[in-house]
Amino acid sequence: MGQTVQLQAADGQQVPAYVAQPAGRPRGAVVVLQEIFGVNTHIRAVADGYARDGYLVLAPSTFQRVQPGVELGYDEADMKTGMALKAAAEALPAPGVLADVQAAIDHAGRASGGKVGLVGYCWGGLLTWRAASLLEGLAAAVPYYGGGMTTPAEIARQPRVPVLAHLSDCDPWVPLEGVQALRQAHPRVEVRLYAAKHGFNCDQRASWDEPAARLARERTLAFFAQYLG
Questions:
Q1: Which of 106, 198, 202, 209 is catalytic?
Q2: How far is residue 5's CA from residue 154's CA, in Å, rounded to a whole number?
Q3: Signed CA dihedral, 8, 9, 13, 19: sign only
Q4: Which of 25, 51, 126, 208 is deepest in the core (most CB within 10 A)?
Q5: Is 106 tagged catalytic?
Q6: Domains by residue range for the chain, with CATH
Q7: What stretch of H or E contains 224?
Q8: Contact 128, 60 (CB under 8 A)
Q9: What's the rounded Cα separation, in Å, for the pair 51 and 225?
């Protein structure tokens, strides 16, 4: 369904992005932010799914600045590789990969002619939370189990757009005490908690939880329908 386009960030960095087009006129745009495994078959399938629901969808390669062409699976070796790449990306001077996310938001807005929503998974969930506070051109943000997003430094951020957060009740990367702190600090953020593990949305992972993934997606589509028009 999709194709790859080249985006250009404000500093000149070239960033490939997978693009999935809807069948008709876009009802808006959705930018999908990858896990630590790159823009792999799962992320492309997620993008295709939102395109079938009527959105123009971009999934930028947020590892491009540290290693081009990353596409990993979900075994132990790939997990270690992904964690190392994430650490390298997080160590980039500010704004780091958020500049590439901004380029994707800008492109999505121009190409769709509508409002732009952001959805991210795992590391992409953390980036989505940050983007809701720091980037321009967004209408809504949906982080899924963003590892680290409930640390004090991240909770201190102030989102400028509506946020729907899908979190798990059994996630070492987003512990329950952090979830409670997030809720207390941000009563306007819609926090949904699932009886599932980290990565529950990914049907290529052992932690996939079909009922939780289906419910979270239904809620996300309703959220986007409300804020993207």
A1: 198
A2: 31
A3: negative
A4: 126
A5: no
A6: 3-228 (3.40.50.1820)
A7: helix 210-228
A8: no
A9: 13
171 is catalytic: yes
Helices 98-112 and 123-134 cross at an angle (nearest 10°) of 70
DSSP state of 60: E
DSSP states of 107-135? HHHHHHSS-EEEEEETHHHHHHHHHHHH-
pLDDT of 144 higher than 90: yes
pLDDT in tens, 162-198: 999 999 998 998 999 999 999 999 999 999 999 999 9
**202 counts as catalytic:** no
User: Which of these is catalytic: 42, 171, 202, 209?
Assistant: 171
Cβ-in-10-Å burial (0-12, 13-18, 19+) of 219 comes to middle
Which two structure tokens, joined as six digits, stand for 170? 């059994």
Q: Which of 122, 166, 202, 209 is catalytic?
A: 122
Rounded Cα distance between 52 and 23, Å, is 7
H/E element holding 155?
helix 152-155
Query: Which helix H or strand E contains 80, and what residues bound it?
Result: helix 76-90
